[in-house]
Design a protein that fits this description.
By secondary structure, the protein is an alpha+beta fold. Helix content is about 20%, strand content about 30%. It contains seven helices and 35 strands. Strands 1, 4, 5, 7, 8, 11, 13, 14, 15, 16, 20, 23 and 26 form a 13-stranded mixed beta sheet that branches. A six-stranded mixed beta sheet has the order 27-28-29-30-32-34, with no helix packed on it. A hairpin with a 2-residue loop joins strand 9 and strand 10. The longest helix is centred in the C-terminal third of the chain and has 40 residues, at about 555-595.
Length: about 625
């Protein structure tokens, strides 16, 4: 399709030659089929829907929430029977995380439906974000408006994953019928600077004029690289206008071309003015103080126009001339040829009004129009800090009601509860500078990875039931000013590394089970206007207000002392056992002696005396015997 407008040509040249390094966008390989994934939310099986036999994948492994039967509030919604909804008890933020998505440019489209349950809120109100950027808000009455039953955005995927989040506003549970992720050309809808990876385009309006029948690109025989856009049919631009619809079956040239790949069908019908009202006017509500990209589609299909100068008109947007002297035949070179004009408009009010005002010849004409809100893409939180927060979530046993899904800091309208963020201009990322999780019923332990939140200035985990010790890695968070761990169940000693926190002004460790000597580097800090509280820890010592510490023993000395005490105890046990055994033997012997009879004892004593007396008498008898034997000899 030809774009001959000087403004459009100038923007195109600027985008091609002046901004390649900034955009860093490579053309998609259109020789291959684009990456496509369609999810039927809440479905346990893959589904195909008529009339195009479209494949919808089952909803498995992407998110949490609950599934239910769906009530389709609009005929344009895909004929799917289930949905997924997210009760507030599961947290205010819930996300679909789709991995293994090739980096590139994508059209993301969501259809919404109602839960088929009369006991639930019939029409929830919630916000939707993609890659951390808020792009849609469902308002009261959305289920009665066809165009409000879906939301669509064009976004760049840069890290092979896509996050689509639903943010509760307290009015019902977000309910999602389907998600479509459709790859489009990397240069699609390039409106010039600041287009690129730093912007998200929200589809605010897409109309196919001259036909009241809505259609998708696939219905219009469009190429898959167009993203299967949805075109709402329109027979008149406004209810008060006297417009006329025309159509043709002629082939339209310059269609289905890169990078936008518009289908031929949107140019085969049109709305034209009348003799009574030759100009055309279109008006829509918009968000004030936003920028919008307007795309206007033309093809001269009126059989009454055969040459240049027969239809010339100006295009005015909000009173300003956006395009002057538009002559479709002159700008395309022939009839039945597509022409696309694009203009970026800054809107300060709540209305966007487009007027096609004839200048020469007869009535104005328009075949289709698209309006996109230009949304600056949110900068994300540093990945290592996101990972550290998720580790903290699991380690502390954070209640489900906290959610903590998606990005902690963006969209800025829905940060994680208990997390304070700050934009680091030097890195171009959000960082975590505060944790406020006091009195939340936490029962886990503080992980060492908390030190990866190195931009923290305040940590408040007081009033919980956190166990374990204080990680020494906390002492490496150099900017920490407030550390409140009071009234938990922490044990062990206070890490010496806390003395390295030179910015620390408030340290509350009271009401725990800490023990040991308070580090000397902390003991003198209150003299420098810091407020430290170590009370209600029976085992702490070493500073005024706490008990005095005994001799300080190293860990090795404490182990040796414990080992010596154990040996002494074992020795005492063995000694006591031996003494008891000996005592038992003595008692047993005494009992045996007492049991002996008395006569037996006396006879034995008398016998002993007789033996002893006999021994004394025998020497005298021997002497007499000798004398007697020698006497006869003497007598002789």
């Amino acid at each position: 399709m030809r774009q001959r407008s000087p403004d459009v040509l100038r923007l195109w040249l600027l985008a091609v030659f002046a901004w390649p390094d900034l955009l860093g966008v490579l053309a998609a390989d259109r020789s291959k089929e684009p990456f496509t994934i369609r999810i039927s939310c809440g479905s346990f099986d893959d589904i195909r829907t008529a009339p195009t036999n479209t494949l919808w994948y089952r909803d498995f492994g992407y998110t949490g929430g609950r599934f239910a039967n769906a009530t389709r509030p609009s005929f344009i919604i895909p004929p799917l029977k289930t949905l997924r909804y997210f009760p507030l008890s599961d947290g205010p933020e819930n996300c679909y995380n789709i991995n293994n998505v090739p980096n590139g440019h994508y059209q993301v489209r969501l259809f919404f439906a109602l839960v088929a349950n009369p006991n639930l809120d019939s029409e929830p109100i919630f916000d939707v974000s993609v890659e951390g950027t808020l792009f849609s808000s469902l308002l009261l009455g959305w289920s009665s408006d066809d165009e409000s039953t879906f939301a669509e955005a064009l976004v760049f995927v840069q890290d092979s994953s896509l996050s689509i989040c639903f943010h509760s506003t307290g009015h019902g549970d977000p309910s999602i019928l389907s998600i479509e992720v459709l790859q489009i050309d990397d240069n699609a809808y390039n409106f010039g600077p600041p287009w690129g990876k730093g912007t998200v385009l929200r589809t605010a309006k897409r109309l196919k004029c001259g036909s009241g029948k809505p259609a998708f690109d696939e219905d219009l025989n469009g190429t898959h690289w167009g993203g299967d856009r949805f075109w709402l049919g329109l027979n008149t631009l406004s209810s008060s206008s006297d417009d006329q619809s025309i159509s043709t079956e002629n082939v339209i040239a310059e269609t289905s071309l890169a990078p936008n790949f518009y289908p031929q069908g949107i140019y085969q019908s049109a709305i034209v003015g009348t003799d009574r009202q030759p100009s055309l006017s279109f008006e829509m509500d918009v968000t004030p103080n936003k920028n919008y990209s307007v795309w206007l589609h033309f093809a001269e299909i009126d059989t009454g126009i055969t040459a240049e100068e027969q239809r010339v008109f100006d295009v005015l947007i909000n009173g300003d001339t956006a395009f002057k002297d538009v002559d479709i035949v002159r700008m395309t070179g022939e009839r039945f040829t597509a022409l696309v004009l694009n203009k970026t408009i800054a809107v300060s009010g709540t209305t966007l009004k487009i007027i096609l005002q004839p200048v020469k010849g007869t009535r104005a004409i328009i075949n289709a129009l698209e309006v996109f809100e230009i949304i600056p893409a949110e900068k994300k939180t540093l990945p290592e800090e996101v990972h550290a927060l998720r580790t903290l979530k699991g380690s502390l046993g954070l209640p489900l009601r906290f959610g903590w899904n998606g990005d902690p800091c963006v969209p800025q309208q829905h940060p994680w509860s208990g997390v304070d963020c700050q934009l680091d201009d030097t890195k171009g990322n959000w960082v975590i500078d505060g944790l406020g999780l006091d009195n939340q019923g936490l029962r886990g332990v503080i992980p060492g990875d908390i030190s990866k939140l190195r931009h923290l200035q305040s940590i408040n985990l007081s009033g919980n039931s956190i166990k374990g010790s204080i990680p020494s890695s906390v002492g490496t968070i150099s900017g920490l000013q407030v550390l409140d761990l009071s009234y938990n169940e922490l044990n062990g000693s206070i890490p010496e590394s806390l003395g390295q926190l030179t910015s620390l002004q408030t340290l509350n460790l009271n009401g725990n089970h800490l023990s040991g000597r308070v580090p000397s580097s902390l003991g003198g800090r209150p003299l420098h206007r810091a407020r430290f509280n170590f009370t209600d820890n029976a085992g702490l010592c070493g500073i005024p207000g706490l008990r005095e510490c005994g001799p300080h023993l190293s860990v090795a000395a404490k182990i040796g002392l414990a080992f010596g005490v154990l040996l002494a105890f074992l020795f005492l046990v063995v000694f006591a056992a031996c003494w008891w055994k000996r005592r038992q033997n003595i008692l047993r012997a005494q009992k045996l002696a007492a049991a002996r009879e008395a006569p037996y004892a006396k006879s034995r004593t008398q016998f002993t005396r007789d033996v002893q007396m006999a021994k004394h008498q025998r020497p005298h008898e021997s002497t007499r015997s000798s004398n007697n034997e020698s006497s006869p000899h003497l007598l002789s």
